[in-house]
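Tutorial handout. Part one gives the primary structure; part two gives the three-dimensional structure as tokens.
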Amino acid sequence: MNILHVSQSMAPEWGGPPRAITGIINSTSTAQISNTIATVRRSQHSTEIESDARLRTYSEVPIAAKLWPSFTASGTLGLRSLVREADVVHIHELWHQIGAMAAWYARRSGTPLVISPHGALTKRAFEDGALKKRLYWAAIQGPIIRNAQAIHVFSADEKERFQEFDIPIDI
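Part two.
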């Protein structure tokens, strides 16, 4: 089985998502499971992975990133082939272009999609840039989540937040 993990960053200063991804990968890397990480370069440093996971890091387009943080043209193109190789696409976090593109490619190719929000739907997180997030939710993020085959939450609070959004899938 090939799992593609998609994350905005694997830099240690990014916090929980790189640690969670590393934990998942380190505990699932076996002869039967291979892991690939697609991420945007945001730092010179990257979280250490104790396995043979492939790491694909894409460059940010600085001008486009003003409108959509960490926009990556090369990642948009590179993701297509990574999604085709994957048996499952696991998007970590919400609101990022690399995740939206991976979800789009997964839907087009019929590849199952798992989403781990890592706290990105807390009321506090949703209030930060509220207007942009509400528009993005309506146009992009909400449909992505509704089309996911699974949502991997890390707390009861996160599960409750999804229920507040009336997400019609098992959590």
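Part three, for discussion. The radius of gyration is 15 Å. The longest strand covers residues 34-40.
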